[in-house]
């Protein structure tokens, strides 16, 4: 049976469309060093990229999840614009995909207000039909709930959708939701790490999506 053509793209945000890796690492290390001096380094912080803040802080200190989350978000907002950077070709490729009629959504473990701020910084606020953030669901990725919600709001079917992300949560979430998956080779944890979760595709550059969706560049 031939797979249906992909006409719906579900994007993770952090580390997939916007390079927030340094921002996330520095925010975590600043917060954690204040409360647990010397316990966490950059290598540890890499593992915190992807899961929700609640998932991460629950594993670190279940009694202080809310306190640490509030502090993280406040510091993250202060440092955001200075430390984020757009990946090569993202805005241009997103606009090409949008112009050619693909349905597109953000499906992230970040809160929607922060995602909107990042999209505005990139100048692509008008590109996405749907935005599903942490505040829209009870169960974040890798649970399929956010992907199901995005597909429902887009009026899209699972067999025509592709989940694109930089982390295990994205690939596992896509598989759990019954959609095809694509990892991004520019993931902070590395292409090899992501390949271990067996995504259907591995993007070397965001523009690979133009070919994947069977849309020739004019």
Structure description:
The protein is of the alpha/beta class and 218 residues long. Helices cover 45% and strands 13% of the residues. It is built from 10 helices and 8 strands. It has helices at residues 21-35, 42-46, 53-60, 65-83, 90-99, 112-122, 145-154, 168-177, 191-195, 208-212, and strands spanning 8-11, 18-19, 85-86, 103-107, 130-132, 161-165, 180-184, 201-203. It has a 6-stranded parallel beta sheet. Strand 4 (103-107), helix 6 and strand 5 form a beta-alpha-beta unit. The longest helix has 19 residues, at 65-83. It is globular and about 50 Å long. 39% of the residues are buried. The model has no long low-confidence stretch (mean pLDDT 94).
Please give the structural blueprint.
Layout: E1 8-11, E2 18-19, H1 21-35, H2 42-46, H3 53-60, H4 65-83, E3 85-86, H5 90-99, E4 103-107, H6 112-122, E5 130-132, H7 145-154, E6 161-165, H8 168-177, E7 180-184, H9 191-195, E8 201-203, H10 208-212
Parallel strand pairs: 1-4, 1-6, 4-5, 6-7, 7-8
Antiparallel strand pairs: 2-3
Helix pairs in contact: 1-4, 3-4
Mean pLDDT: 94
Give Rg in angstroms: 17 Å
> What general form does the structure show?
globular
Care to count the β-strands? 8
**How big a fraction of the residues is strand?**
5-15%
H/I helix tally: 10
Low-pLDDT residue spans: none
Major sheet: arrangement of strands: 5-4-1-6-7-8
Terminal-residue CA separation: 30 Å
Roughly what percent helix?
40-55%
Helix/strand-derived class? alpha/beta
What summary fits the major beta sheet?
Answer: 6 strands, parallel
- What series of H and E elements makes up the topology? EEHHHHEHEHEHEHEHEH
